[in-house]
């Protein structure tokens, strides 16, 4: 009896940590749920915002493209009318369609501007852009579309051409504004996601440390103690067989322990169920009821297969094996329910014993890991987003531990310095990356200052990378003090080359603008309010052949304009403002009410020759806003017009290049799959050899296995080298064909897979007598043999050793390769159309990735061949390749 009490105390002591873990789990689970919801909501909100921003930027950029299409279509209509005497209905309909789309997309931008609060400057810019669009629409609608059958007027053409460039310039500024807004939102999103990710990660580690790990340890310990208790109980029964009274007491104790086991199972914090030999429920924990939707349902005494009719034969086979003494464990698997839902679970199925040799049923322990799998997926998604963000903004971290005299660089920081991933910097080498001279002296001074006085520093200096490239880098540092002593410096590191280049470009542009205003590059003409010229710069003299003395105080700019252009422009403005506008008033147009006006004009030199100019006309105002004159800046755009045509041609070439790059990226993606899959088999083989080496007791066997290690490693090195050579060949656009003997290929593959072959005891039969050799790509052929042989071993039948037959023959002057095994087989009626698909698997296997057959088919078809399969479930599979 004392022995029994000791056993019972062990059982109850095992329950205590599990019960305390259950009490601690609620807070961590709630915290994780809240953090996941917050992270998911933040990401989805940001993604929706980025999608809308991308759409806005795309539409604003397309506004410029549509305005150019309107101009082109107008020219086509004009050409048809002038040269062919008729208008093309197709061009007219296209013009209508483009204009309707232009106006429709502008309405979308209007709605977005109403939703987004912008500054007054942007509102003014948008209003001005809308005004240019309205002028183009007005000219096209009033003068072209209604009378497409009549000759298109030159006034309409000039009007649209005149407003096209200012519309494009202002539209580009609007698009830049939208891009800036999107970048600000992305920066805010990054900060929020980083904070939430840190919180979620901390909670996840807390959940594992406080709940999962103790639960697993406690459960394992409890199961071991129960097994020990069962053995002790069996021993006690044998000792008390001679005494009926002792037998009765023993029976009472057994019943008590059974009840205690049921109590333990029912109150366990994990999903545990106890079954008899007929798979009827004897006990089930509350967690089991919750995980499988059985709360409130009476299941004790019912068959497991009655409660879950969707359970398949594979599970039933596992149950029967365990009822015979086997133990089945799986870390993760997907379980589909009858209602169409599903969950990820891990399980442990093992028998429980009435006596030492009498199995009373089985115990099933499962853990619902669906939330963990979903959380892992979310974490991978967030990591992907963060990696993309870091790739875009190029920001890394750094830390200098003064006590340990150690510098730590983040991945992005190493990338910016263009050093190897395992590069370890020190203070001297880190500073030496800065360009010798002002940049290096500045960073030294900044570091010395914060180490001595504390605070922070923020510098933008020139850096020379490990590859010799000069970039602008921003280094931000913060000092950390303990007891008045600086112990650590840390901060961020950013590649600001683009921003610095833009800043320097703006400075240079301002310098160039000043030079333009003071040089003869542009024509700059100032007038009073009546149009009399008050300023006539050197550029105007050189461009127009008039002297300042001839123009200032004597003439108006009308003298340098074509009379027909002024007349057509005057008609448009008169119709617009409802009054007659002539002379100098045509030039200033609506400048009196706007900040400036940009138009394309034709200037007339003193000798009568003409040339096109882009004229920016602005009203000059005093401090009270009263107009005191006008200033016109004209630039000869003869060369610009020619370059515009060249730019359109270059754009078409760029689109072709983009398509080629997309195709190349697809090729590289496929090659990445080849590398991943071809290297998995040698690595798995090394693992198998290591397992055999560990369990081997013979020194001779260990020496043999060690020699196999060297052989596999040598083949792994050859595989890497061959893959590198293949990548070079693909970059050069061709495939290498060599004369290869099938016997040599299979010999090499058997050496690579020696560990798996020894472990599986596979019997391989070869017959290459009818077609011993082939002219083929070596990498492709080795990959084909390796994938098919690996599949035959991986999906072998558990009831028999693998038998694999490989043979070749000539069929219609083509080589036919047959690969036959006696493994599990494949249900082709169910999976036949997915057999060679990427990431398609048809058996529950931990290493099944669904890549091998896809790569094999890709290799075969890339070399002009075909592959087919014949299979019967439980009998094996035959693959046939026709090269």
Blueprint of the fold:
Elements: H1 2-84, H2 89-115, H3 120-143, H4 154-239, H5 244-267, E1 271-276, E2 281-284, H6 286-291, H7 304-307, H8 313-323, E3 328-336, E4 342-355, E5 358-368, H9 370-393, E6 395-401, E7 406-409, H10 411-417, H11 427-432, H12 438-453, E8 456-464, E9 470-482, E10 485-495, H13 497-517, E11 523-527, E12 533-536, H14 538-544, H15 548-551, H16 563-577, H17 584-588, E13 596-604, E14 610-621, E15 627-636, H18 638-695, H19 699-731, E16 738-741, H20 742-752, H21 754-760, E17 763-767, E18 773-776, H22 778-794, E19 803-811, E20 814-820, H23 828-831, H24 852-862, E21 866-872, E22 876-882
Parallel strand pairs: 17-19
Antiparallel strand pairs: 1-2, 1-5, 3-4, 4-5, 6-7, 6-10, 8-9, 9-10, 11-12, 11-15, 13-14, 14-15, 16-18, 19-20, 20-22, 21-22
Short recap of the structure:
With 883 residues, this protein is α+β, with helices and mostly antiparallel strands.
**Overall residue-averaged pLDDT value:** 78
> Can you count the beta strands?
22
Superfamily (CATH H level) name of the largest domain: Histidine kinase-like ATPase, C-terminal domain
Number of domains: 5
Low-pLDDT stretches are 146-150, 728-734
Structural class per helix/strand content? alpha+beta
Shape, per Cα inertia axes: elongated
Characterize the structure shown.
With 883 residues, the chain is of the alpha+beta class. The chain folds into five domains: 2-215; 270-393, Beta-Lactamase (2-Layer Sandwich), CATH 3.30.450.20; 397-504, PAS domain (Beta-Lactamase, 2-Layer Sandwich); 519-636, PAS domain (Beta-Lactamase, 2-Layer Sandwich); 655-882, Heat Shock Protein 90 (2-Layer Sandwich), CATH 3.30.565. The chain is 58% helix and 19% strand. The protein is built from 24 helices and 22 strands. Strands 2-1-5-4-3 form a five-stranded antiparallel β-sheet. Strands 7-6-10-9-8 form a five-stranded antiparallel β-sheet, sandwiched between helices. Strands 12-11-15-14-13 form a five-stranded antiparallel β-sheet. A hairpin with a 5-residue loop joins strand 3 (328-336) and strand 4 (342-355). Helix 4 (154-239) packs across helix 16 (563-577) and helix 20 crosses helix 22 (778-794). The protein is elongated and about 130 Å long.
């Amino acid at each position: 009896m004392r022995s029994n009490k000791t056993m019972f105390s062990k059982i109850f002591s095992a329950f205590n940590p599990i019960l305390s873990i259950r009490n601690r789990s609620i807070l961590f689970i709630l915290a994780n749920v809240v953090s996941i919801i917050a992270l998911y909501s933040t990401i989805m909100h940001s993604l929706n915002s980025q999608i809308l921003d991308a759409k806005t930027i795309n539409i604003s950029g397309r506004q410029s493209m549509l305005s150019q299409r309107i101009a082109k279509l107008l020219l086509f209509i004009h050409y048809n009318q002038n040269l062919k005497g008729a208008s093309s209905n197709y061009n007219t309909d296209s013009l209508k369609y483009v204009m309707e789309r232009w106006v429709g997309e502008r309405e979308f931008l209007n709605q977005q501007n109403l939703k987004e609060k912008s500054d007054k400057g942007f509102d003014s810019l948008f209003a001005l852009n809308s005004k240019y669009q309205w002028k183009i629409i007005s000219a096209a609608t009033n003068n072209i579309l209604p009378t497409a059958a009549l000759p298109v007027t030159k006034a309409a053409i000039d009007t649209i051409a005149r407003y096209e460039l200012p519309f494009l310039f202002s539209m580009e500024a609007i698009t830049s504004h939208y891009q800036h807004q999107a970048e600000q939102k992305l920066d805010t999103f990054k900060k929020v996601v980083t904070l939430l990710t840190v919180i979620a990660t901390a909670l996840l580690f807390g959940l594992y440390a406080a709940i999962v790990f103790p639960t697993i340890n406690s459960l394992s310990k409890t199961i071991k103690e129960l097994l020990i208790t069962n053995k002790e109980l069996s021993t006690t029964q044998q000792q008390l067989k001679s005494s009926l009274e002792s037998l009765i007491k023993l029976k009472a104790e057994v019943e008590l322990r059974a009840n205690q086991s049921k109590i333990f199972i029912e109150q366990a914090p994990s999903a545990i169920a106890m079954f008899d030999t007929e798979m009827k429920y004897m006990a089930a924990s509350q967690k089991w009821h919750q995980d499988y939707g059985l709360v409130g349902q009476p299941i004790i005494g019912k068959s497991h297969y009655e409660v879950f009719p969707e359970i398949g034969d594979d599970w039933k086979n596992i149950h029967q094996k365990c009822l015979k003494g086997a133990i089945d464990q799986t870390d993760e698997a997907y379980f589909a329910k009858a209602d169409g839902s599903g969950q990820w679970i891990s399980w442990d199925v093992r028998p429980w014993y009435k006596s030492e040799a009498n199995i009373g049923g089985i115990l099933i322990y499962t853990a619902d890991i669906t939330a963990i799998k979903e959380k892992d997926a979310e974490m991978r998604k967030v990591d992907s987003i963060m990696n993309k963000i870091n790739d875009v903004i190029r920001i890394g971290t750094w830390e200098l531990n003064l006590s340990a005299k150690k510098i730590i660089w983040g991945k992005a920081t190493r990338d910016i310095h263009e050093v190897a991933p395992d590069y370890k910097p020190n203070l001297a080498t880190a500073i030496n990356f800065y360009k010798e001279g002002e940049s290096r002296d500045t960073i030294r001074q900044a570091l010395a200052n914060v180490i001595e006085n504390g605070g922070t520093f923020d510098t933008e200096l020139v850096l020379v990378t490990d590859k010799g490239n000069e970039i602008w880098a921003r280094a931000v540092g913060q000092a950390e003090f303990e007891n008045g002593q600086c112990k650590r410096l840390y901060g961020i590191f950013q590649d600001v080359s683009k921003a610095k280049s833009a800043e320097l470009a703006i400075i240079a542009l301002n310098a160039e603008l000043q030079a333009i205003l003071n040089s003869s590059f542009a024509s700059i003409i100032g007038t009073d309010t009546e149009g009399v010229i008050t300023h006539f710069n050197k550029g105007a003299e050189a461009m127009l052949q008039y002297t300042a003395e001839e123009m200032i105080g004597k003439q108006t700019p009308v003298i340098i304009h074509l009379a027909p252009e002024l007349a057509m422009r005057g008609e448009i403005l008169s119709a617009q403002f409802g009054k007659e506008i002539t002379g100098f008033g045509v030039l200033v147009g609506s400048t009196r009410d706007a900040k400036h006006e940009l138009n394309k004009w034709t200037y007339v030199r003193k000798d009568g020759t003409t040339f096109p100019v882009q004229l920016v006309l602005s009203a000059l105002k005093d401090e009270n806003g009263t107009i005191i004159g006008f200033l016109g800046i004209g630039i000869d755009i003869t060369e610009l017009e020619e370059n515009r045509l060249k730019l359109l041609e270059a754009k078409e070439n760029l689109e072709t290049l983009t398509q080629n790059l997309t195709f190349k990226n697809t090729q590289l993606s496929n090659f990445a799959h080849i590398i991943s899959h071809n290297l998995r088999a040698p690595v798995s083989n090394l693992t198998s050899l290591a397992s055999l080496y560990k369990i081997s007791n013979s020194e001779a066997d260990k020496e043999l296995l060690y020699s196999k290690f060297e052989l596999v490693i040598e083949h792994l090195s050859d595989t890497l080298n061959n893959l590198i050579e293949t990548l070079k060949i693909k970059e050069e656009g061709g495939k290498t064909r060599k004369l290869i003997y099938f016997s040599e290929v299979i010999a090499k593959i058997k050496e690579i897979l020696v560990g798996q072959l020894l472990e599986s005891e596979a019997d391989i039969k070869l017959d290459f007598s009818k077609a011993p050799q082939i002219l083929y790509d070596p990498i492709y052929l080795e990959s084909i043999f390796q994938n098919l042989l690996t599949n035959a071993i991986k999906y072998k039948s558990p009831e028999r050793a693998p038998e694999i037959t490989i043979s070749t023959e000539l069929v219609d002057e083509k080589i036919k390769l047959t690969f036959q095994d006696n493994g599990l087989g494949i249900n082709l009626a169910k999976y036949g159309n997915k057999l060679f698909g990427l990431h398609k698997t048809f058996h529950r296997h931990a290493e099944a990735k669904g890549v091998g057959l896809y790569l094999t088919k890709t290799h075969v078809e890339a070399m002009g061949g075909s592959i087919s399969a014949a299979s019967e479930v439980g009998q094996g599979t035959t693959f046939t390749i026709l090269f």
